[in-house]
Amino acid sequence: MTRLKARLAAFAVMAATALMPLSAQAEQLESTFDQVLGTMPRAPRAATSLEMQLAALAEASQGRIGVAALDLDSGHSVSVLGNQPFPMASTSKIAIVATFLAGVDRNRFSLSDRYPLMMPVPSKKFSTTVAPVRAGAMLSAEQLIELALTRSDNNATDALLAVVGGPAAVTKWVHSNTGITEFRLDRDIATLVRDDGAVNPAVTIDRRDSITPNAMIRLLSGLYRGDWLSRSSHDVLIGAMSRCRTGRNRIKALLPEGTAIAHKTGTLSNTASDVGFIETSDGRNLAVAIYVTGQGGRQNRDSRIALLAKAIYDGYAGSESGNMLPRRTALR
After folding, report:
1. What is the number of structural domains in the chain?
2. Mind listing the pLDDT tens digit for each residue in 143-169?
3. What is the CATH number of the domain that holds 224?
């Protein structure tokens, strides 16, 4: 009861600070978070009204929440716990596909090459270092990419992962080509799913198979700009993300009908995520990464992602930051 009263008092202070100058609001919120949440992971000191709104939505007493967003045209960014590692879950599939497409650009692979789906063989949790799999139906690389990114198909993803050389090869590609060292892929999807649940991500940081929200934004923005892939490979990756059929209650749930979104979801025990690109009504292109843990259940995690995405969309659409540089026309 004491904890509940403290949290209610914190929200009352947030409401009361709404009429203060932004600097005073930030100081008051920071003081309140310190008093109520103690050393609980929380948002950094807010500097703008959007950051303050995100800080309130990402309040961490029911589980860690990390969020980052970047206006790809102006370079204006915001984040909450942006440098804290979160489980990638299936958002790692963006990097896996990118690694394969980089191989296509180097003529190591072709989109028409055919590979077998990697089908899990039943095994007990933690019984082996790598979960056993067997070869399934043969599909083209183009089909595997479509399945991995639009339907989050684990068997298709592990097929591509096997081709590029496994998790270590993806980690190496990301580190050496993008300079993003906060990315780490340790297990194939079959092993990740089989052994899921050993660590509660709401209260514990497990650096295996993790990324920080800020690092994911850097990965997304570089892929968007075509820094590491050819134009054709860029189009394959972003095109598949634009056809993503998972996560209807996450990033896209509260955005205006018809909003252009290219994204990838992730789900594991007590964690949900959604990352990708959003085009605002005035033509601004945003990179967004949202990682949510805890919150009392999947429905609440999905709802929190939706609320954060809506706050980001409205915050950028209502700001002048997008006018700092000429705007691109659309996500392609």
Report:
1. 1
2. 999 999 999 999 999 999 999 999 999
3. 3.40.710.10
